[in-house]
Amino acid sequence: MMRRHDDLPNRADRAAYRFNDRIEAVEETTNGSSVTFSSGTNETFDAVIVAEGVGSSTRELVFNGANDPRWMDMTIAYFTIPRSNDDDRMWRWFNAPGKRSVSLRPDQRGTARAMLSLSKEAEGEQDWDVERQKAFLNERFADAGWETPRILAAMDSTDDFYFDVLRQVRLPRWSSGHVVLTGDAAWCATPLAGIGTTLAVTGAYVLAQELIRNAGVEAAFQAYEKQMRPMVENGQGVPKIAPRLMHPKSRLGINLLHGVLGVASTDIVRNLRARLFSGPSKEVDLTRYD
Q1: What is the mean pLDDT of the chain?
Q2: Are 122 and 40 in contact (CB under 8 A)?
Q3: CA 76, CA 167: separation in Å to the nearest integer?
Q4: Alpha carbons within 13 A on the beta-carbon side of 267
Q5: Distance between terminal CA atoms of the chain?
Q6: Sign of dihedral through CA atoms 83, 85, 90, 92?
Q7: Which of 74, 124, 214, 290 is most deeply packed, by most CB within 10 A?
């Protein structure tokens, strides 16, 4: 379970939290990485571990131009809305013509998690401000039907709105000197892969263990990447056609999708698929760190 910083034991001698600050520059020195913050302070660190997510600004400072993103032709918005009497325990998913989908999922806090998805090529929407993103969703989903009017109405006042155009992070290397990337900043596979949390937790563990096992930081980073690359590349293998298949353009396409999903969910088909497509595991062997 993830813990907030203010729930953690007071270890001022071991950790410092900084808010409303960011890294403005990173320079390699003989002693480590010299980091300049937007607040004006400058410090040198033995290791700089960047875990800022798919849109990491520090990654672009250190690995400028190295990322070759794989765009997945999918735009998604997530946010929390009040639960209604019609909501039940099930995660409900609705397809609307025009390559759109809407879903509602109950959570453990008495509210519901809403998701609006649109299959389309990227046009820079991830860089818009929140108001423009919400206006875009209101326009594109205005006639979608089902629970969409309720979701759009609640979207205007939600306090956890998240919007992104899905893309995978593809880099030739994850470290440079005393700086290393991990999590989505290094290898974002997108939610379509269904393995993002597993990769993040595994990557953090492997990185920590390699830092313990190796005398030098750079050697530890290289060992960490060697262990994680096969698992990451396997996780990023989701085909780009998947979002298009799951978001038909027409009502006929939606009916065909539902029919195919019905057949695919039967035990016979699931067992056959498991036998045909299962192969050697690409997961990291964590027993090597015991």
Answers
A1: 88
A2: no
A3: 11
A4: 0
A5: 22
A6: negative
A7: 74
30 — pLDDT class (breaks 50, 70, 90):
confident
**What DSSP string runs through 226-264?**
HHHHHHHHHHTT--THHHHHTS-SSHHHHHHHHHHHHHH
Between 7 and 41, residue with greater pLDDT:
41
Nearest Cα to Cα of residue 102 among 92, 111, 112 = 92
Cα 52 to Cα 140: distance, rounded to the nearest angstrom: 30
pLDDT in the model for residue 271: 58
Residue 42 pLDDT > 60, yes or no? yes
**Cα distances (angstroms) measured from residue 50 to each of 29, 178, 223:** 18, 11, 17
- 207/33 Cα distance (integer angstroms): 18
Q: Does residue 54 carry a pLDDT above 70?
A: yes
Helix (H) or strand (E) holding 139: helix 130-140
How does residue 11 score in pLDDT terms, banded at 50, 70 and 90? Answer: low
Angle at 42 between CA 50 and CA 215, to 5 degrees: 55
| Residue that is written with structure tokens 């609705």 in the block | 94
| pLDDT higher at 277 or 177 | 177
Tell the burial category of 180 from Cβ atoms under 10 Å away from its Cβ (0-12, 13-18, 19+): buried
